[in-house]
Amino acid sequence: MSATEFLEICVAVSLALLVLSFALITIRIVRGPTFADRVLALDMLVSVGIGFIAVIGVKTGFYLYIDIAIALGLVGFLATVAFARFVMHCGDVLGGESAMCYGSDSEKQR
């Protein structure tokens, strides 16, 4: 077995595992049950997207994809921090309303 054949097998196996994880993460996003679970699943979805981009970069030999994956990782990190701050200040959105998140009663009546 040559190195090229081994690389092709590794790429195929990694793409199959990434597709499986993408499907499981999608199920978690749909089923929830809490907002925090969905945020965590979206963070994992970004990680799987980074994996897809990196594997495709290795498969095609166009390594600029790795730079794109790094940029996606930074954006995903910032989105996760923003969601975490929202959950920390507002609690679970499905569990109850908070005056700090939705404004005062006078603002709700408008």
Automatic annotation (TrEMBL):
Pfam families: MrpF_PhaF (PF04066). The keyword Chaperone does not apply. Its main location: membrane. The keyword Cell wall biogenesis/degradation does not apply. InterPro entries: MrpF/PhaF-like (IPR007208). It is found in: Cell membrane. It is a multi-pass membrane protein. GO terms for molecular function: sodium:proton antiporter activity. The chain crosses the membrane at residues 6-27, 39-56, 62-84. GO terms for cellular component: plasma membrane. Keywords: Cell membrane, Membrane, Transmembrane, Transmembrane helix, Transport. Belongs to the CPA3 antiporters (TC 2.A.63) subunit F family. PANTHER family: NA(+)/H(+) ANTIPORTER SUBUNIT F1, NA(+)_H(+) ANTIPORTER SUBUNIT F. This is Multicomponent Na+:H+ antiporter subunit F. It comes from Afifella marina DSM 2698.
